[in-house]
Amino acid sequence: MVKTDTIAAIATPLADAGIGIVRISGEEAFDLIGRIFRKKDGSQLTSIRDVVSREVYYGFIYDGDRPLDEVLMIVMKAPHSYTAEDTVEIDCHGGSLMMKRILETVVRNGARLAEPGEFTKRAFLNGRIDLSQAEAVIDVISAQNDHALQSSVSQLQGSVSRTIKGLRERILYQVAYIESALDDPEHIPLDEDYRDQLESFLETVKVEIRALIASFDHGRVMTEGVKTVILGKPNVGKSSLMNLLLGEERAIVTDIAGTTRDTLEEKLSLGGITLKVVDTAGIRSTEDVVEKIGVDRAKRAAGEADLIIYVVDGSSPLDEDDRAIMELIRDKQSIVLLNKSDLAMVVSKEELEERTGQRVIMISAKEELGMDCLEEEIKALFYQGEIHFNDQVILTNLRHKTALEESLRSLERVEQSIAEGMPEDLYPIDMMDAYGQLGSIIGEAVGEDLVDEIFRKFCMGK
Questions:
Q1: What is the Cα 6 distance to its own chain's centre?
Q2: CA 263, 267, 273 angle in degrees (round to 5)?
Q3: pTM of the full predicted structure?
Q4: Is the Cβ–Cβ distance between 462 and 12 less than 8 Å?
Q5: Per-10-residue mean pLDDT for the chain, 462 residues long?
Q6: Does the CA dihedral 8-135-438-400 come out positive or negative?
């Protein structure tokens, strides 16, 4: 055990609810709970250290001689607990005041308040989970859609760890072979055949690392959401589309062109995909100073978007403003919506597809038609086919991606050394650098500052 002092925190949201949980972990956790927990008849447990681990005990928490709350108490003995330390959880009534009172009593009896993420940090330091699994804990908590949740759970179960450990074992085997050959060249050759084998090995590992790095774009979309900007001329139905996506009247909708003067940002889930949707001012030539600012902001938002949804009023002819928008979305990932399909159309789907070079989806925001097609198109753009989390590792952490990129560069230096005919004793230097970079993902050879920074992002009770 790395740390043995006893910590405590409220592990559930500090808000009125049916139940709340106060968590205690550390060397004195059992002695502490023995002083404040009593059975229904008011007697103390004969020996808290003799109770059965992971069983639930019913009784009361006492502050001195005064009962505070009727509770359920769970004892988890080391190392079979979340922190791998002796741990106690008190399930009490979920009032904010009650949870605070129990926590204060716990602290007065010998615990200190836990730092943010300290329970999970102890689980990492005590070897119960590695660093990538610890980081997955906060991802599980903050997941905002099914894809992000499944990916985070997969990482928590060790998908990233197993992949990284497998790569490291293979690299270490090659390093050990080279070092052995340098020590015993008579019996272990480092001839041309081995160099060819090493180059083939390096290429295979590089392909696997590149695939992991490439998966980060999927991972970023899953965790952060798709930054989606709705563009179009004034009064084409952008705000109506925004309200339809949100399922509420969030944007003001009128028949007056130019009603939306600024960007309006909202986050929503569409078919398991999180969208950060930005409704923008209608793009058109205007002399109105305020409207011009809105148009400029709309264009700037389009430049930063992952996805542009271009809305066209199919009941009105295309004009110069439409052509300007088509130029704006050129070479951008876009979906074109031909709106107001419930009215007489003067713009055909075929004409719009020819002009934009994009697939066009016919919708009616007013009649709520065509939204299923929009959902499927977004899925097709960002998730090519279904993602199977059991057999596919998807990176969601920028720190992991950066470490993989560094390891890739180290392996490329080994290839360069082979190509330039450099001495074999140089190969292990760069290979061990790649090995170390991969190790930083799972928490081997990482600095205390980095560990502290990672766990500082956690909530207090986790």
A1: 30
A2: 130
A3: 0.71
A4: no
A5: 79 88 94 92 78 88 94 94 94 93 96 93 91 86 73 84 94 92 82 89 96 83 78 83 72 42 66 77 66 75 82 87 84 86 84 85 85 81 54 82 96 94 91 94 80 76 73
A6: negative
